[in-house]
Amino acid sequence: MSRFRVVIADFITDAMLPEREILGDVAEIVSLGASREEELCGHVENADALMIYHNIAISERTISQLRQCKLIIRCGVGFDNVACAAARACGIPVANVPDYGTEEVADSAIGLMLALTRGIALLNRRLQRHAGEWSYMQAVPLSRLRGRAFGIIGLGRIGTAAALRAQALGMDVVFYDPYVRDGYDKALGIRRVETLEELWPQVFVLSLHCPLTEETRHIVDARALAAMPRGCYLVNTSRGATVDTAAIPDAIRRGHLAGAGIDVLPSEPPPPDDPLVVAWRDPNDPCHDRVILNPHAAFYSEEGLLEIRVKAARTVRRALLGEPIRNVVN
Ligand code: NAD
Fold this sequence. Notes:
The chain is an alpha/beta fold and 330 residues long. It is built from 13 helices and twelve strands.
């Protein structure tokens, strides 16, 4: 059998043991460890499969150079960093790995919510820098979560897992997702709203779990934040650009938004002059204590990381061998 060439574009820079175990008998595997698309030039043209993580984006420019590619696999859930339509036009399927970190991301969303709404992050930060008294009074007022509305945008795998967790905390779960079939809300015992305008005034905590698309870009902006009740919280573990993050500092300074837990930013790592990052780093800004930033870490666990590599490699193997490919997104 002729040996195929599989290129891992970014992120994986180790000995590639999981990939070798699954693909080693049929393919030579190369990892580029790229951090910019330009670095792929000269290395991917004759790839039979291209594996993409989250450190780079693949545009039409690269896709048009692929001469014999049977699959581009996004080793993750979101595929907004791959020009899927361009790949389709070239006859190249794009697949993702939809089911490796569902629990981890839902746990992180709930973790961010609890760290904010229980005052855990704020009190820790203030005590650590000797600001104020050694007393819960620094976090006053905090509200009981039971009975409060946990609003979800995007009730897919992760949104559903987050809904079940919030439900276990006694929260009143309400969601907006125009693509979910009727009746799913009944099965889960949660509430559905038909419009975002209905959602905003109800939420105590808003958690985003939708993909980044033209519809969802800045779905939460200054206007949406203003329409949410005073003292509400925002959690984003979806994609950075679903939120207009530049609107967060002002909402926090006005006391309208009580806190924000942000795992994902529009640009990662963020530029040093990103307004949210600047406000969060400044000990004199209320965002310092009321915003939690994470480096797109919600997906991560050792088990999840191995699962993603194994599942992605198995999908590549099927594509190379001409078998039906699972989880094609284009
Ligand atoms: P999914 O496809 O199962 O669910 C996404 C849901 O969003 C679907 O139900 C879809 O109908 C809904 N949706 C689409 N457009 C919408 C819109 N305009 N308004 C409201 N809802 C809309 O995906 P998932 O596995 O639950 O993952 C959700 C997102 O989480 C991914 O797209 C990815 O961007 C993000 N993610 C982040 C991390 C992380 O580490 N932070 C890890 C994995 C996934």
